[in-house]
Design brief:
Elements (H helix, E strand, L loop, with lengths): L20 H5 L15 H6 L2 H12 L4
Length: 64
């Protein structure tokens, strides 16, 4: 999609992992990334918001 629309920036979310995120963030047309890795089903089910917070903080520190 980016080739015919070079002025558009994206926020990819599908299949993004903490390991893949930096490569996406290096792309000029990617403003940010999202991913469900920050919300493990087990942590949600257990109400373990400490795990979710730690994963979200780590995601916020990701750099390209």
């Amino acid at each position: 999609v980016a080739s015919p629309l070079p002025a558009i920036t994206f926020c990819p979310t599908g299949g993004i992992t903490p390991e893949k995120a930096p490569a996406y963030l290096k792309l000029e047309n990617v403003a940010c990334v999202g991913g469900s890795w920050m919300l493990p089903k087990a942590a949600i089910a257990a109400g373990d918001f400490g795990v979710i917070e730690a994963l979200a903080r780590a995601a916020a520190r990701l750099e390209s």
